[in-house]
Design a protein that fits this description.
Layout (H helix, E strand, L loop, with lengths): L4 E3 L4 H8 L5 E3 L5 H6 L7 E4 L9 E3 L3 E5 L4 H6 L1 H6 L1 H8 L4 H6 L2 H7 L6 H8 L2 E4 L3 E3 H4 E3 L2 E2 L7 E7 L3 E8 L6 E10 L2 E7 L6 E2 L1 H9 L3 H5 L16 H19 L1
Parallel strand pairs: 1-3, 2-3
Antiparallel strand pairs: 4-5, 5-10, 6-7, 6-10, 8-9, 11-12, 12-13, 13-14
Length: 263
């Protein structure tokens, strides 16, 4: 590690001021950021701890959506009666993240702000058509994830909550790395009021929607329709875990399983 300033504000205004123009980083559960700092992949001069800001916590539901505070942990999302009743696929996704320690420390806001290309939550946001609320604006999921470890967040802007529209049907299936439980490929399928949405994580530099699968499942929301889709390997990730071609093969297979799970 290396030296840095540590700030622990008690309000969003203080936190935003501490981040603006400093090159600092907000830290929630620290499960992604601190690991990156140890590897010198991230070297912020200031860490702003958000853990004492009460308004970033809590899970609520209305007739149309579930709103989850940015500091809600994966374990809290997985166990929430509101989430389990309204969007069980989201609760199941949260339960499958990492191990018990990671789920008890890692947060929704931290995960999507970090935007790891193999993280699970970005697929849920994109497939469900979620909206990210920040200290300054509302950002649709389609506009939020912009590239490898990149998001639309501006300097000093902090995620406060995420609103997930309640789908008609949804499910998430991932092929997990046995070591990290990150997704080699993960596919979230949702039937929403605005049509079928399919989001893929782990396969590319950033989470993305599959227009091929969305078209096929709009015509026929069945496992066979998903499995029949051919995905190009062009632009997909290739590493020691899996080739681009293997990831391309996995996408329709996992989409088929997700459709079956959605019912």
């Amino acid at each position: 590690m290396y030296s840095f300033e540590f700030v622990r504000p008690t309000s969003l205004a203080e936190a935003s001021a501490a981040l603006t123009g400093t090159g600092g980083k907000a830290v929630a559960g620290g499960q992604s950021l601190l690991s990156a700092m140890k590897l010198r992949l991230s070297q912020p001069g200031t860490l702003v701890d958000l853990s004492r800001i009460a308004e970033l916590k809590g899970i609520t539901r209305d007739d149309a959506a579930v709103s989850i505070g940015a500091l809600s942990t994966h374990a809290e999302v997985a166990a929430s009666p509101a989430v389990r009743k309204a969007i069980p696929a989201l609760a199941d996704l949260a339960h499958g993240i990492g191990d018990r320690q990671v789920r008890n420390r890692g947060t929704l806001g931290g995960s999507i702000a970090h935007n790891d290309p193999a993280a699970c939550y970005p697929a849920a946001l994109l497939a469900l058509g979620a909206t990210v609320r920040t200290t300054t604006r509302l950002i649709t999921a389609d506009d939020f994830f912009t590239g490898l470890y990149e998001t639309a967040l501006a300097d000093g802007e902090i995620i406060t909550s995420v609103s997930f529209p309640i789908p008609r049907k949804a499910a998430y299936v991932k092929f997990a790395s046995p070591a990290s439980r990150f997704a080699l490929v993960g596919v979230f399928v949702a039937q929403t009021s605005n049509g079928v949405r399919v989001a893929v994580t782990g396969a590319g530099p950033s989470v993305f929607r599959s227009s091929e699968l969305e078209s096929a499942l709009t015509r026929s929301f069945t496992p066979d329709a998903a499995k029949a889709v051919t995905i190009s390997a062009s632009g997909l990730n290739g590493d020691l875990h899996a080739s681009p071609e293997y990831r391309a093969h996995l996408i329709p297979v996992l989409a088929s399983r997700a459709v079956a799970a959605a019912g």
